[in-house]
Amino acid sequence: MTNRWTFQAVPGIFVEIADIAHQYPQGKVTTQPSLGLIPGQKYPSDDPDASDQRDWARLAAYVRWLNETCPENVCYKLLYLTRHGTGVHNKVHAEVGSEAWNSRVSFQDGNDKETWFDAFLTDVGIQQATELNTFWTNLINIDGAPLPEILYTSPLARCLQTTSLVFSSLMSSHSATFQPKVKELLRERITMHTCDFRRPRTWIAEKYPNYKIEEGFTEDDGFRKRSGPETREEHVERKQRALEEIFEEAKDSQFLSLTVHSYAIRAIQAAVGAGVCRTREGTSIALLVRGERQGQVNGTAEG
């Protein structure tokens, strides 16, 4: 399938987290202070007379300037990527070990004590998301980071929960509508483990009435029909498609939040040419991404 867009992470804005991943247990990076924004950066859009000289305010102005001055077939979006908090599946995996998990346990829906099919957050995961809410509140209110204009989420239960816990009160405190968009292509890599399959559309709509489920979202999980797991290449291609759809449907928005998964973040990093690394549960990172629409001249499609 031919890509409609090419994406490239803009370097030199945020700390290269792939370069520091080795400093963390199991190479899982955690949320960096100020999301890793490099302090004191100079941007072509800097205005010495602007009243707000905070680093985040200047970056937001730079993103707007980039979109005002770039060609019509190019746009820039600041992506806030959040990995869900610890889920039941993460806890059980740690308890039984990788050999038992990958060979047997992960293919079960659960046991007589708990369910890890489309896993919910554990108490630890809820606490992680609550702590992220505090982080984001300070990032927006104190550091001056731009509020997400659109919230996207994977349809898996742990991401639906995390999105609510992290962003609901924050959006409300800024009189912004809390209406996350549920997007199928953002879900985790399909490993054939039951934690990676989702509940029906009806369940999502009933449990999360404020969420907007994208058009074409099927009642049942079509990925359960696969005969085998996604390859890494297939997953990166799926995230490429997700980004293409997001850049097109959110064409007038510049600051977007995506609540996703561990493999999903790595696939997005790969799709935009960023360094690829693991992230701990309940972690947020940021990427400034340049997107260029292919086959257009002066905003008009060729052919």
Automatic annotation (TrEMBL):
<dbReference type="InterPro" id="IPR050275">
    <property type="entry name" value="PGM_Phosphatase"/>
</dbReference>
<dbReference type="GO" id="GO:0005737">
    <property type="term" value="C:cytoplasm"/>
</dbReference>
<dbReference type="Pfam" id="PF00300">
    <property type="entry name" value="His_Phos_1"/>
</dbReference>
<protein>
    <recommendedName>
        <fullName>Phosphoglycerate mutase</fullName>
    </recommendedName>
</protein>
<dbReference type="InterPro" id="IPR013078">
    <property type="entry name" value="His_Pase_superF_clade-1"/>
</dbReference>
<dbReference type="GO" id="GO:0016791">
    <property type="term" value="F:phosphatase activity"/>
</dbReference>
<feature type="region of interest" description="Disordered">
    <location>
        <begin position="32"/>
        <end position="51"/>
    </location>
</feature>
<dbReference type="InterPro" id="IPR029033">
    <property type="entry name" value="His_PPase_superfam"/>
</dbReference>
